[in-house]
Amino acid sequence: MGRDRWFAISFWGCCALLVVPVWSVDYLPMVDLPQHAGQIGIWTRWSDPEFGYQDIYTRNWFTPYLFGYLVTYALTAFMSVNAALKTIITLAVVGVPVATSALLREVGGNRWWAFAVFPGVFGFAFDWGFYNFLVGVPIAIGALILALRYAENPSRRGGIWLGLLFLALFFVHALLFGYVALIFGFTVLLKQDEWKTGLLTLLPALAVSPVVFAWLTVTRNSEAMTHWATIWELPGQSPRLLRLLSEAAGDAVNAWTLVVGVLAFALPVLLGGRPSRSAKRWVPFSVTVVLFLLVPHEFLGTAFLYSRFAVFAIPTWLYAMEWDREAGIARYRLTIGPALAIACTVATTFQFRAYAGEVAGLAEVIAQIPENSRVMSVPVFRSSRHVRTPVFLHTPVWYQAERGGMVDFSFAINFPLLFRYKPETEPKVPHMLVWNHRLFDWDAFEADDYDYFVVRDYSKAPSSILRQSNGSVQLLGRAGPWQLFGRP
């Protein structure tokens, strides 16, 4: 079998394998995904007066989350909200190696290096359910290819198209626009000796800046959470360089992610690569590392900022490598990349299947709640035995996606969301309740306004709800740790 055919079978086979973990569970182990599903659920029922959403929410079209919601909503004409989300997520995770392969072709890199990105596709952004960011990652890589190509050979027509692409990228995710624009800017400035020429070349990105500044100005002036204190680092975190190595290949620092991370970074070197002597080839990787090291953990009310950029570490590292085409590569070395991709994807699949048993009872509990009810989520136990993140923070919001109604705590109080609570309908449930159930306060949260309470707790009865309700709610059913409370 020739190497061309062997590569095609290996690469597309590994891409197909990425589909398996996504569709192996009913509810994906992604922390914030239920909240995004709830947003799509609102949109699908927006015009239905029975649900009365137009009296509860306002629609915020000027949001950098627009693209992901738009394409997902379009799919709900043919499938459920959950299936639509899974379809887009499938395209996103498969899109990362495909886009990276295109990036390698752009600079004449070895196509076998693309296997290095497979371990990171189910990494930080996926685990935390940063849906719109995740959807935008392969788009950002594609935009980066076109931006770097334009930086080499600028033209009026190319500049117009690139400007439109930058504008579209902002509505995919503001962070992704900023990331690609920053790399584009440094690449142009490094290449141009004449500042006027450089400024003209930068026009496609600069032309979008009024839109970005308008959004920032409106958001800062109208959203209190954008004035929260900046947090540079959460306590107890590992050094960031160590985290970069691990998060480029998964998530939390442990022996597995460190070994996989080292192997992913080493793969191009094992397959005939060497660091490029061209400074411009190092711009994307340098920007990625600097952002990871210097960006705060939380800024403008948005948390987990710097870790998101880890997904770009391997693709930009590969861009900085040159391939010595004259050096022969032993056939056995070509098996390292596919073996790494298969091992990581299979491990992820087993992890998801183990998690599936923990979330299984949720669907049973949701089925007991009538349509269009008002529900409060109290995750006493928010963590999983099998997944690294507190994956059960928001899972009851799947009810809103599937059966309508409202579930609090809700991301509908957050400024980037498409559907926002109106000021007069905003609930009293604080965002910290899902992080600390001991904050539960029946009167302060106006709990009498809720029809049902979904509690995840292994004990027989969460006393905080029963004690504070003065007998107005009782246990209606349970499925494993999932407990449903409601009116008697």
Give structural notes.
The protein is α/β, with parallel strands linked by helices. Helix content is about 50%, strand content about 10%. The strands form three sheets. Strands 5-4-7-9-8 form a five-stranded mixed beta sheet. It has a two-stranded antiparallel sheet with strand order 1-6. A two-stranded antiparallel ribbon has the order 2-3. Helix 5 packs across helix 6, helix 6 (about 80-105) packs parallel to helix 8 and helix 8 (about 130-150) packs antiparallel against helix 9. The longest helix has about 30 residues, at about 335-365.
- The Rg value, from CA coordinates, equals 24 Å
Helix content: 40-55%
Mean pLDDT: 91
- The ordered string of helix (H) and strand (E) elements is HHHHEHHHHHHHHHHHEHHEHEHEEEHEE
Which strand order spans the largest sheet, edge to edge or round the barrel? 5-4-7-9-8
Largest sheet: 5 strands, mixed
| Uncertain runs | none
How much of the residues is beta strand, in percent? 5-15%
Shape: globular
Q: What's the N-to-C terminus distance? A: 69 Å
Number of helices: 20
Count all strands and give the number.
9
